Amino acid sequence: MKKLIAAALAALALPLFAAKPVTIKGSDTMVIMNARLAEAFMAKNPGTFIQVTGGGSGVGIAALINGTTDIAAASRPIKTSETDKLKQRFATTGYAFPIARDGLSVYLHASNPVKELTLAQIRSIYTGEVTNWKDVGGKDAPIVLYSRENSSGTYTYFKDNVLLGRDYSPRAQTLQGTAAVVNAVSKDPNGIGYGGAAYAKGIKDAAVKKDDRTPGVLPSLETVRNGSYPISRYLYLYTRTKPAKEMKTFLDWAIGPEGQEIVTKVGYFPVK
Amino acid sequence: MKLKTVLILAALLLAAPMFAQEEPPPPEPTPEELQGKIDAATETLTETKNIVDLLSKLKITGYIQAQYVNDEASQNELGGATGTRNRDQFSIRRGRVKFTYQFSPTSKFVIQPDITTSGVVLKDGYVEFTEPWTTWHHTLTAGQFNWPFGFEIMYSSSQREVPERSRVFRTLFPGERDRGVMLSGVGLGEHFTYRVAVVNGTGTARTDDLNKRKDLVGRVGYSFGALDVGASAYRGSDLIATSTRAAGIEFDKERQGIDVQWITPVPGLGLRGEYITGKQAPASGTTRTQSFDVRGWYFYAIQNIGTKHQFVVRVDEYDPDTNTDNNAVRTINPTYIFHWDANSKVMASYELIRNQVSDPDDNVFTLRYQYSF
Question: ipTM of the predicted structure?
Fold first, then answer.
């Protein structure tokens, strides 16, 4: 009987001593990479638990600000207004860890005769100035735009750096997650989308030209690394405080050779 | 016998469909019919998307603060010239709902009523236009908005770490808002901010402006990362009835101040301070011909422990007439905040209020629960 009571008490007390999971929330672009990193780290460090969820970069940073995640994953730099909120709520400016580099692909249907686009053409397409493929060297067919929801870091990055801050065309169809954009373009011969290079399966990437005079460049390890691919960005993990304990071990490992190998396997590019 | 009959009838009824003549399968839809169905579904989807897109441009946020206050100065008294003097009570301090409609990045509509047991009051109501041509994103705001002065006025009551603003702001900027137009912008790598406004100068307590002259108020700020600094100024006048002139005379209304917010190297410790001097008009019916010289300041120390706990001390002082001795009021305000989750927090705060010459029984304890969304 005594043993039974002791066992029951131990079972009840177990959750009190169980390791608290490290939570990573944010960018949908990064969710597969973060999940792979977490799986590999947990396999290497039994007893640690890392929980990965998506929702978008803005959602992740909001969770960092309201204290509901330990790490925010963001496919864009944190905004000044977000840093101000961190300062006010937690008396910190936050800590940024670039974890990978990503070439932002412009997706086209495999049958689309268009092979390359200038940044100006992509801008014209997504702002709605150009609405037919024939105006950018393709067939006479309407262009169907696929975009991301506005809480997405990819949406923000593309808007700031490709559209130069201009508004997306109201005709752009908003989809939840890069995988949904890839799926839509793969089924739509007139579709165009954008997202992480790691997702570009079942479709083709457009070669992107900085302007009319430069050659088109496809996203690859080499072109993203040497900066010749015009649409590339860092992917970040943000923390509120200086990382300690499991969080520090995880981040050190993710930025180290083993973590960067996983980053490369997933299809992104190492930061070093 | 009866039971048998009922069972047989039931069995026949259940079995009937099995023996019914099978209907021929429906004919395969033609490609035209399928295309029509797809077109109809696409049209419905487009209409739904248009509605959802329009709705997503409307953002609704808000918070409610339910509280209990215990005030040492409270007395049981019915009616009388000053009305009830009991302040020990449960109340809704603030009940804000903010509606923001942003059709495009260049324009915005904001309206924010405060709904409490005292009634409904308009707090914010303005339209904004942001120019898209420069990286400064100069923004023109017109309507009713916060006075662009200092830090504490523009810091939301839902975020503030003590129940009320410091005495200097409650006295010199009652209601924290006015009506007018404001130009603002952000530049120099988003380190520099400016806001300058032309306002009535009467605040929001009145619906009209008593004098023809308009007031000018503004702030410039610079962020060094962990350290933010700002300088503010206000120039205007108040029309006040005096003992010799009922139509009123213009009294100078001036304020100038500096504010500092510092994220210290000590983990989770933030410090804030603000110092203001100025001229404040006397009350109506005065024998004076000039404004009072006034001065005030506050200092906050905020220590975060983990993500749930905040310990705060604010000290503030307000001197309503610097040319008269021993009339400043100082308040020490220790506060503890427990952040229950992302939406709710509980605050326990004690205000120790001291005059320079005495310490009357007027300390205040506030226990507040806030839910925001």
Answer: 0.80
